[in-house]
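Project channel, design review

CF: Before we commit to the Kribbella alba constructs, I'd like one complete example in the thread so the newer folks can see what an input/output pair looks like. Taking Amino acid-binding protein.
RD: sounds good, go ahead.
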Amino acid sequence: MFLLRLILPDRPGSLGTVATALGEVNADIHAIEIVEHRRENGTAVDDVVVDLPPGVLPDRLVSACNSVPDVEVIWFSRYGAGGGLHMDLEAVEQMTSAPSEAVDILVEQAPSVLHADWAALLDGTGSEIKVALETSATPEFGDLVNQWLPLEKASTLAAPSHKGLSESVLVAAPLESNRRVLVIGRRGGPEFLGSEVARLSYLASLAVTIHATA
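CF: and here is what came back for Amino acid-binding protein:
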């Protein structure tokens, strides 16, 4: 499974042309997600999750997309989190089915929802900041947690020169308070877009609201 992030013209037929090009290299499209509309220049950013049959080189995916006029591949990587087209709704459905665990569910689902590698819940409501919950592959933060809290609103975080984090891009959102924060990381990129920060902010607020109904 591979994830392609593309910039393409925001007009009817663009996705179809890309899909045709991918089909010519025998790629099986599992999901297409519109990440952002850029109305100022008439383009869109889309994530495409595809599978390749044995024997087909992954580089052919990039070549196929680049062969389409006005299409640019800005990110390409293996993708192990599964689909992605309706991950927001699936996360919300899981949270509403278990309100008392809504925050924990969001932490667990965040990497899939945002096509990231890991997520961690930082809790600084006590005398010291601790990692209250984390997914697999979460790096050690050390004293970095002290510079991330408090956090007033969902935003990207500057990547620190810290072993395990220097090549990551980070985004975070406060939950019940500005000292209880969800941090999400991607190794190597791509950068989190404004629309993704907004999605995280919405899901974080929703998780807190759902939890309050338990």
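RD: helpful, thanks. The radius of gyration is 18 Å.
CF: Residues 194-212 form the longest helix (19 residues).
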